[in-house]
Design the sequence.
């Protein structure tokens, strides 16, 4: 069973203390929302988890393997994959080539035909299979988000971090992303979902982590977190408790 | 024949053309045209390998001409300072290897041989023709030059790991200039601006298919450089098709995203440096032996600009386009040398041709950023993609 253990993570950028002893654990195929105001430290936490930056102190273990000092490619191979807040597709490579990159990087001994077959199945699921030979730069913003999600399916990590997957996406494509999350989670993978779209977060997630200026101020089931005075004060706002579920628009502001 | 096979067929036709060209062409300027072709092949190796480095991997290095110089100077120093002798000179530094002595000639810089002779010349004058010394084989010098280019490529590749875009360009430019300045300054060893003379590619002539060629005949070096170009293009084609090609392009597009998907970006960044610098060094070593001399002027920034311009005009994101661009431009630049008169005014084309070249480069960058040849290749290889996409979407919508 997937286990991610984050213990006492601290990160400073000069005088700015961005993460202050953040600790949490993920056991099994959990679907966790990571929320917090801008500047809360969500992206920094994600960058530490995927090895892009190193913490000043603290540890991260993935299935008992310490990963906080590993380079990003080894973290990916160890089983942690992510998308980026701003889509980072390989723009001057075809859609299929984008999917080939993680599959070949893993080097699991699959033939090119097998990889191509899986890639086409992934593209079909994401409803962009007709674009397979187009350069990624020809895709719309939403389609590029789907492509990024497709690359993660090819990487097939144990833990998936989705950074703002719904931002700027057409409702029809959002349905595809919802199905994607259900598929990945249903396949036994843990998902950390970062989003300012509270509707989606409360609909999908069964556990919420709330960061506020580097502090993990809440960790619990959505109903409890929604009522947490510290969370209301820091992020959801005073009206949130009353409106109960209509928070999406406010939270984005 | 399918339309997207056209570039491959054109490639085979081009190879056949250049393989037959020396036998078909027979005009009075044969040697001159062969010389231009050999130089064109030399630049084609530089431009295509730089295309892999900059166009595929996004590593805009301006040190490529420096690596070319590493290869050229390595073989030059190797052939200039090392000899084999059956007898010890007792005045040079020498090592007994088997039954031969490896003689290391003492450096004397550019001092006239009438004033100061190197130790080997002294020994030869003492021996008075009774001992035959053996120069180092040219092919070994070229191999050593290639390896040395790879070692320098490895070191520079490791040093620039954290550098991107303009910083990488400036760093590598600095490397090439430091190398050139060092070679110019180390007169005692490198003979500075005077340059080092090298034995010709086929110094003792060569017999091919029953025909004896002298050291100055153009056909043997033509095919030597042509085969080196084909070898480099073959390696580049194999790399571009392999996961190496895919990963370095991912590296170009987004290094962090590639790493997050499991690509060991450090390894591929260093690898692409090593492979392409080895090609530049091999080309430099062979060209130096063909010309017979290497000087620091061959490492000037202007030379690097020429390579970059050739690759850009051909199409920097395709090594074949870059190679064709280099050969075409080398021929065009030479053909434009012919000055002419307009109403009694002589137009000196030795200067104006560079102006025309500069304007062509600017127009290419402004109106065809993918170069002039790459769009042609893409027309045949990818021209059908848009239609296919529309058809697939329509099929998907109707099902």
Sequence:
């Amino acid at each position: 069973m997937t286990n991610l253990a984050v213990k006492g993570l601290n990160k400073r950028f000069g005088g700015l203390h961005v993460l202050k002893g953040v600790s949490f654990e993920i056991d099994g195929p959990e679907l966790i929302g990571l929320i917090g105001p801008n500047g809360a430290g969500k992206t920094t936490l994600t960058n530490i988890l995927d090895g892009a930056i190193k913490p000043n102190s603290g540890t991260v273990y993935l299935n008992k393997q310490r990963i906080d000092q590993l380079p990003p490619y080894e973290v990916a191979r160890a089983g942690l994959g992510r998308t980026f807040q701003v889509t980072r597709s390989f723009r001057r490579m075809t859609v299929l080539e984008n999917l080939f990159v993680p599959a070949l990087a893993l080097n699991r001994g699959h033939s090119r035909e097998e990889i191509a077959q899986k890639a086409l199945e992934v593209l079909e699921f994401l409803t962009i299979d007709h674009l397979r030979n187009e350069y990624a730069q020809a895709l719309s913003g939403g389609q590029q988000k789907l492509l990024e999600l497709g690359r993660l399916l090819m990487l097939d990590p144990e833990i998936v971090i989705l950074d703002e997957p719904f931002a700027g996406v057409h409702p029809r494509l959002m349905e595809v992303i919802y199905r994607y999350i259900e598929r990945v989670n249903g396949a036994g993978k843990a998902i950390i979902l970062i989003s300012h779209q509270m509707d989606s977060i409360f609909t999908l997630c069964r556990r919420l982590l709330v960061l506020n200026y580097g502090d993990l101020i809440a960790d619990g089931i959505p109903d409890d977190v929604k009522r947490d005075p510290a969370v209301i004060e820091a992020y959801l706002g005073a009206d949130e408790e009353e409106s109960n579920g209509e928070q999406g628009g406010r939270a984005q502001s | 024949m399918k339309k997207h096979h056209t570039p491959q067929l054109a490639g085979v036709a081009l190879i056949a053309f250049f393989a037959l060209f020396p036998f078909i062409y027979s005009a009075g300027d044969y040697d001159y045209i062969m010389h231009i072709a050999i130089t064109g092949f030399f630049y084609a190796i530089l431009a295509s390998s730089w295309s892999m480095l900059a166009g595929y991997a996004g590593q805009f290095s301006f040190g490529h001409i420096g690596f070319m110089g590493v290869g050229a100077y390595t073989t030059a120093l190797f052939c200039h300072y090392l000899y084999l002798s059956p007898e010890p000179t007792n005045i040079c530094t020498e090592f007994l290897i088997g039954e031969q002595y490896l003689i290391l000639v003492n450096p004397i810089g550019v001092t006239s041989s009438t004033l100061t002779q190197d130790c080997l010349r002294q020994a030869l004058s003492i021996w008075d023709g009774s001992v035959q010394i053996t120069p180092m084989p040219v092919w070994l010098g070229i191999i050593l030059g290639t390896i040395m280019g790879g070692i320098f490529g490895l070191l520079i590749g490791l040093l620039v790991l954290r550098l991107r875009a303009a910083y990488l360009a400036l760093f590598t430019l600095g490397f090439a200039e430091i190398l050139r300045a060092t070679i110019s300054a180390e007169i005692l060893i490198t003979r500075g601006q005077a340059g080092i003379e090298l034995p010709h590619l086929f110094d003792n002539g060569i017999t091919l298919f029953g025909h004896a060629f002298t050291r100055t005949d153009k056909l043997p070096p033509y095919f030597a450089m042509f085969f080196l170009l084909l070898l480099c293009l073959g390696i580049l084609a194999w790399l571009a098709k392999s996961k190496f090609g895919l990963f370095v392009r991912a590296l170009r597009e987004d290094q962090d995203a590639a790493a997050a998907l499991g690509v060991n970006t450090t390894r591929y960044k260093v690898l692409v440096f090593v492979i392409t610098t080895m090609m530049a060094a091999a080309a430099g070593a062979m060209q130096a032996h063909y010309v017979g001399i290497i000087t620091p002027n061959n490492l000037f920034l202007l030379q690097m600009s020429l390579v970059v311009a050739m690759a850009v005009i051909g199409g920097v994101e395709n090594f074949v386009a870059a190679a064709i661009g280099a050969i075409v431009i080398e021929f065009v630049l030479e053909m434009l040398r012919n000055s002419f008169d307009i109403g009694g005014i002589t137009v000196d084309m030795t200067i104006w041709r560079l102006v025309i070249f500069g304007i062509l480069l600017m127009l290419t960058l402004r109106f065809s950023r993918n170069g002039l040849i790459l769009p042609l290749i893409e027309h045949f290889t990818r021209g059908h993609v848009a239609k296919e996409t529309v058809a697939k979407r329509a099929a998907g919508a109707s099902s």
In short: Residues 104 and 115 of chain A are 8 Å apart (CA to CA).
